[in-house]
Amino acid sequence: MRLDEIFEYSNKALESEDLAREEALILAREAIQLSSYSIRAIHRGEEENAENLLEKARRVLLKAQERLAPHPKIYYSGFLQDAEKEVAEASITISLILNKPLPSPTEMSIGIAPYLNGLGEAVGEMRRHVLDLIRIDNLDRAESILETMDEIYFILNSLDYPSAITGNLKRTNDMVRGVIERTRGDLTSAISRKSLEKSLEQFLKTITES
């Protein structure tokens, strides 16, 4: 192979990879943005809008995955996995808030590590949801969500594999533990306050009747 042929071959190959990377990067960023919008919508109670935005995010992510499929080095460079994690987080958050079965990694065509990290990140969104439930005095549902958060922590904590395989899942789960502890404290305070209010109401009722 002549030097000019080596140059021509290398230039075409690198140009193709660079173009794929640039296009996929734009798509990945769009998927992340749409996922964020879908989470915001579900917290606002906009269920249909949240699911529509999530579906758009999934389609955009799929385009990015397909674009990088011929380029495994770029596919696994990190930014696509970040987008997968964000889409997983949005999917899991919406499913938990709507009390629906969680989508599997296979159903979403998302890698195990991004999915698990997305599952952990969703716990943070569940804390926000629990606080919203406390504000509307739906403590039973808040307790149920907290139980699910505990289950997620237990599952993630049980997956003892190297960070290179799990995408630093231990760091995510350390965050999960802290979120759960704060949420349990907030919910315990709300339940205690509610119990005190009921006791006071009963006391005042007794006084009034007597």
CATH architecture of the largest domain: Up-down Bundle
CATH class of the largest domain: Mainly Alpha
Structural class of the helix and strand makeup? mainly alpha
What series of H and E elements makes up the topology?
Answer: HHHHHHHHH
| Share of residues in helices | over 70%
Report the strand count. Answer: 0
In short:
With 210 residues, this protein is mainly alpha-helical.
Description:
With 210 residues, the chain is mainly α. Helix content is 85%, strand content 0%. It has two domains: 100 residues, Methane Monooxygenase Hydroxylase, Chain G, domain 1 (Up-down Bundle), CATH 1.20.58; 100 residues, Methane Monooxygenase Hydroxylase, Chain G, domain 1 (Up-down Bundle). Helix 1 packs parallel to helix 4, helix 4 packs parallel to helix 6 and helix 6 runs antiparallel to helix 7. The longest helix is centred in the first third of the chain and has 41 residues. It starts with a helix and ends with a helix.
